[in-house]
């Protein structure tokens, strides 16, 4: 067992896949919400968020989509907005040994809330 | 089942306690790292982080300790530093129905890394 | 002249008061936007933001008011929101030698934008 | 005079160039410090920071260099670090009518501090 593993021997691989995906999602939201964004910069921001969050432990893939419609609706003369959770649709796939989890962030209308949940898990 | 619960019926209460604690820990780290802090403002920052992160789903208690020794060692004429993960010792306790989890963030010397892990779980 | 001053000998005291206040305002906005907040945690957050940002160079006073009305209007079952620029009214007072500046952040309806501007300067 | 201009008629164009550059620098620092980064993701992060901060008022160009040497020195098994101010070298060029300012952030060894200052202004 390496130095890291001893901190995780009280949970299953499935639980660690969930754990690491959840950390990454919470981190992503609170790192990048507030970032200035408009239609010209949005793709570069999506790619950078994906690259940044993919370096975290157990993270296999991160897919970020920022809602273009919200960017096109901007109705001020400054031509950009601050990124909000409502604009984000994110999938974080984690792998821990033989187990995989897909954590999702998306705005859920019926909850009026950008919800993070486990969309799929082995 | 309420609107929220249907998003979580694929995981156990124990797993949700872990999930929500992990989100809160990732969020806390990435929201507050970078905040200017010194010996005079440190207690107010600890209390505000605890209060802010306690509003998240399933979070029962948040305890934040920022390393005073690091603040006293500041060796520049500006008399403050930016908060880093290395300065943080955090405990997040979550409750999901009959299950409880304690998520911990602390700097682990042998890993040279501010590690997030599940310290205790039912 | 100390080590710091030589970096600022190309601008006036009035300009440095404006410069440092503007840094602090930009920093404040992007550090704290996204923080979870509700009616119970709002005062502690205001005080911590004031204490944190007051440690920056030349900053004499920071006053933060978060719009309670927006917090009371929350219409989701999670009972908190992420702090946005629209909810903030902030005054940063800077002093540089004999000059003082008051930098303001407030939501300006006619611009539909949380504007930062110099409200008063010697 | 448009709606925005009336908020800035108490300062000169030179002062506004300084003001907007300083906001952008403070914003950049506190938005992105804490972001996970390693040698593979660093270029994408630099480009996204440049694109994001270029949308702010009066900002003409943003150039971001993250210190590769610091990334190569990483000595933990997780193979990434959190971005710190010490790793950043940033130039923000602002234009306000006939005036231009260059705001710089770089780590100054003699101050042991990541200093923001006005490197050049008309």
UniProtKB/TrEMBL annotation, chains A, B, C, D:
It is an enzyme of class 4 (lyase). Its EC number is 4.1.2.25. Transmembrane segments: none annotated. Substrate binds at residues 20, 116. InterPro entries: DHN_aldolase_MptD, MptD_sf, MtpD_C. Gene3D superfamilies: 7,8-dihydroneopterin aldolase (MptD). Residues 12-119 form the Dihydroneopterin aldolase MtpD C-terminal domain. GO terms for molecular function: dihydroneopterin aldolase activity. The keyword Cell inner membrane does not apply. It comes from the Archaea. The keyword Lyase applies. Pathway: Cofactor biosynthesis; 5,6,7,8-tetrahydromethanopterin biosynthesis. Keywords: Lyase. It catalyses: 7,8-dihydroneopterin = 6-hydroxymethyl-7,8-dihydropterin + glycolaldehyde. GO terms for biological process: tetrahydromethanopterin biosynthetic process. Homotetramer. Belongs to the archaeal dihydroneopterin aldolase family. Catalyzes the conversion of 7,8-dihydroneopterin (H2Neo) to 6-hydroxymethyl-7,8-dihydropterin (6-HMD). This is Dihydroneopterin aldolase. It comes from Methanobacterium lacus (strain AL-21). The gene is mptD.
């Amino acid at each position: 067992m390496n130095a890291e593993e001893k901190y995780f021997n009280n949970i299953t691989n499935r639980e660690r896949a969930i754990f690491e995906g959840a950390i990454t999602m919470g981190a992503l939201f609170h790192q990048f919400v507030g970032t200035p964004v408009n239609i010209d910069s949005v793709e570069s921001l999506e790619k950078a968020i994906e690259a940044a969050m993919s370096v975290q432990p157990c993270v296999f893939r991160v897919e970020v989509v920022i809602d273009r419609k919200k960017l096109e609706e901007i109705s001020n003369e400054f031509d950009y907005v601050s990124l909000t959770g409502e604009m984000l649709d994110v999938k974080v796939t984690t792998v821990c040994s033989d187990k995989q989890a897909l954590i999702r962030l998306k705005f859920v209308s019926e909850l009026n809330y950008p919800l993070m949940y486990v969309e799929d898990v082995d």
